Amino acid sequence: MLHDPKILASVESRLGRLQPDSMPVWGRMTPDQMLWHMNQALGCSLGYVQPPQDKSPIPRPLFRFLVLNLPWPRNTPTNKDWVARERHDFNTELARCQKLVAEFAARPLNQPPSPHPMFGQMSGREQSRLHAKHLDHHLKQFGV
Predict the structure, then answer these.
(1) Long-range pairs for 73-79 at CB < 8 Å and ≥24 separation?
(2) Residue 120 pairs with which residues in a beta bridge?
(3) What is the C-alpha radius of gyration for the chain, rounded to an integer number of angstroms?
(4) Which terminus of the chain has a smaller tally of CB atoms within 10 A, N or C?
(5) Structural domains in the chain?
(6) Residues 41/82, Cβ–Cβ less than 8 Å
(7) pTM (2 decimals)?
């Protein structure tokens, strides 16, 4: 969970090691695009970003369980509105990501987050797990 102090500290440290010229181990995103993508997901949970609802390929509760509990393969599909198609300013997106991570982790777990476009309403604990897993996935993508 992103609310776990050790996981939060690790994410913050790893974000600090990301560089504008970091090369992906897989995928086509650049570091600035990955940060923008992460900011869309975090911003959605905080109510700043409202993408349209996305259809789940299987019943939402089952899909949510699988995403939260199974490893994610490389190049896993994402919400089409969160696909970075253009370049962004790395420093701006990094600062925004650090701010959103801190803001999300400071929210009480019992405070219901905004509904997820794919998984619907989730508990604060579930979204904290989801963001920790999502951040870890993409930081590994860039070798940090």
Answers:
(1) 74/26, 74/27, 74/141, 75/26, 75/27, 76/137, 78/37, 79/40, 79/51, 79/54, 79/117, 79/118
(2) 116
(3) 14
(4) C
(5) 5-141 (1.20.120)
(6) yes
(7) 0.91
